[in-house]
Amino acid sequence: MATESGGDDHADGESNEMNAQGIGVGIALGVGIGVALGVATDDVGLWLPIGVAIGAALGAAFSRGVSDDE
Question: Where are the transmembrane segments (predicted)?
């Protein structure tokens, strides 16, 4: 169920929205690192998806909107 504000609000007022740009940057960095490791180890097929997965996870973790209202 979507709310009109566009995000899920917690009881303490925190928003559950993510910054899509942060996820994109994380994936781009993960692709670069994965390709570099793949070329170095001669196994791009293995390291590219690993880099994408790690980049997406780190991008999602760092793009969470945290407000310092206190």
Answer: 20-39, 46-66
DSSP annotation of 8: P
Distance CA 25, CA 49 (A): 16
Residue 15 counted as domain residue? no
Tell me if 57 is assigned to some domain: yes
Q: Is residue 48 part of a domain?
A: yes
- Tens of pLDDT, residue by residue over 23-67, are 999 999 999 999 999 999 999 999 999 999 999 999 998 887 655
Whether residue 46 is contained in a domain is answered as yes
Residues 63/26, Cβ–Cβ less than 8 Å: yes
CA 26 to chain centre: 5
Q: Are 62 and 16 in contact (CB under 8 A)?
A: no
